[in-house]
Design brief:
The chain is an alpha/beta fold and 333 residues long. The chain folds into 2 domains: 145 residues, Rossmann fold, CATH 3.40.50; 162 residues, Dihydrodipicolinate Reductase, domain 2 (2-Layer Sandwich). 38% of the residues lie in helices and 23% in strands. It is built from 12 helices and 12 strands. The strands form 2 sheets. It has a 6-stranded parallel beta sheet, sandwiched between helices. Strands 8-10-9-7-11-12 form a 6-stranded mixed beta sheet. Strand 11 and strand 12 form a beta hairpin. The chain starts with a strand and ends in a 16-residue tail after the last helix.
Length: 333
């Protein structure tokens, strides 16, 4: 029986979560795909620090050992930042590898280019993990909302900023205190700029825009305001009016024009995002036929992100209508 051979680029929180999920759920994955799954290679910057951490997998810093290995079928990419991830994925696609990525910054910049390259090479790109952790928004839009026209999206796309705002509101904590606790719990990085200033949510919103509307707004025209200016007093004031401050990513499509923003918004208790607290993410859509739809789930972390990537893997290999060498079914429209 053929074994599906996969490689993992990056072995931090997300990459190790993918590896652990594959190991723990071998029987389930084999039942879905029809094949046993083997992690054949893992790419890291310093291989000497990761020896004996991943069974029989080759630990390497050389991308060519993965891209040029004809036995490897799928590459999971979990590297932080635009480079070298973009260059690595281009190389793998050109060598005929299917790609599954969790890299929102890289994909916001290069998703369209990679998708077109994948189509030319008859391989698939899965990118569910780039937008909202474990929430299956990509597959929902691609497979379940084909006829519906989505006119507006409002979302909480960053669990770190949502946790901080929740902590400030519930415990009347200062921003600095809430941020410090988020860092101690592993929700925030030592440098939390991407989260608290809205860059992380911005990249995710651009990916969703490309997916839903087949284009992005002009980046320089997107309003982006972080949460560093929010105070406990502001939370108290809004609570008196039955409102809560949320860091909202919003995109609307009107008269063939896209407008977008990421900024703190005081939402009323009737709003679908009012009750989304802690590290949870949520996406609220307005569709012309279906009407309102809200998806809620864990927005970050090892297992939610790994879950999204493994589900992409199963969409590639686990459906009878998908041939042995599937084309770019998960790509942008």
């Amino acid at each position: 029986m053929k074994t599906l051979s996969v490689a993992i680029l990056g072995f931090g929180t997300v990459g190790s979560g993918v590896y652990e999920t594959i190991q723990r759920h071998q029987n389930r994955l084999q039942k879905i795909t029809g094949f046993p799954i083997s992690v054949s290679a893992i790419l890291v910057e310093h291989p000497e620090k990761h020896q004996n951490k991943a069974g029989d997998a080759i630990i390497t810093a050389d991308i060519d050992k993965i891209a040029s290995n004809p036995a490897i079928d799928v590459v999971f990419e979990a590297i932080v930042g635009r480079e070298p991830a973009f260059t690595y994925l281009k190389h793998c696609i050109e060598k005929g590898k299917h790609i599954i990525t969790a890299n929102k910054e890289m994909f916001a910049f290069h998703g369209k280019e990679l998708t077109e390259l994948a189509a030319r090479n008859q391989v698939t790109i899965g990118f569910e993990a780039t937008t909202a952790g474990g929430i299956p928004i990509i597959q929902t839009v691609k497979r379940l909302l084909n006829v519906n026209q989505i006119d507006k999206l409002q979302a909480i796309l960053n669990g770190t900023s949502n946790y901080i705002l929740t902590k400030m509101r519930e415990e009347k904590a200062t921003f600095s205190h809430a941020l410090k606790e988020a860092q101690q719990l592993g929700y925030a990085e030592a440098d939390p700029t991407n989260d608290i200033e809205g860059y992380d949510a911005f990249y995710k919103l651009m990916i969703l825009s490309e997916l839903i509307f087949a284009k992005q707004p002009v980046w320089k025209k997107v309003r982006r305001t972080g949460i560093t200016g929010i105070t406990p007093e502001m939370h108290i004031e809004e609570a008196h009016a039955n409102r809560r401050i949320k860091h909202i990513a919003e995109i609307t499509f009107t008269n063939d024009t896209i407008s977008a923003s990421i900024e703190p918004v005081a939402v009323p208790e009737t709003h679908p995002l009012y009750a989304i607290d802690g590290v949870s993410n949520a996406i609220h859509l307005q569709a012309d036929i279906l009407g309102p739809l809200t998806l809620v789930g864990p927005g970050a972390g090892s297992l939610p992100t790994a879950s999204a990537m493994i589900e992409d893997f199963c969409h590639i290999w686990g459906h009878p209508e998908v041939p042995a060498s599937p084309v770019a079914a998960l790509a942008f429209p």
